[in-house]
Amino acid sequence: MTWLHASVLLTFVFGGQALAAAEAETGGILLQLFYLIAAAVVGGWLFSRLRLPAVVGQVLAGVVVGPSVLGVALPSDFNRALAELGAIFLLFMVGLETRFSDLLKVGKEALIVAVLGIAFPMIGGYIFGAFQGYDSIVALFIGTALVATSVGITAKVLQEMGVLNTVYAQIILGAAVIDDILGLTILAVVSGLGAGEGFSGSKLLSTLGLSIGFVVAVLALGIPLLTRIRPALKRVALGNSFGVVLAVGLGLAGLAAQAGLAPIIGAFLAGMVLSEVKDEYDFENKVRAIEAFLAPIFFAVVGMQLNLALLGSGPVLIGGLLLSAIAVLGKLIGGYLGALSRGKRDAVVVGVGMVPRGEVGLIVANIGLGLGVVTQTVYAEVLLMVMVTTLVAPIALRALVPAPPVASGVKT
Question: Cation/H+ exchanger transmembrane domain: which residues (predicted)?
Answer without folding.
Answer: 38-401
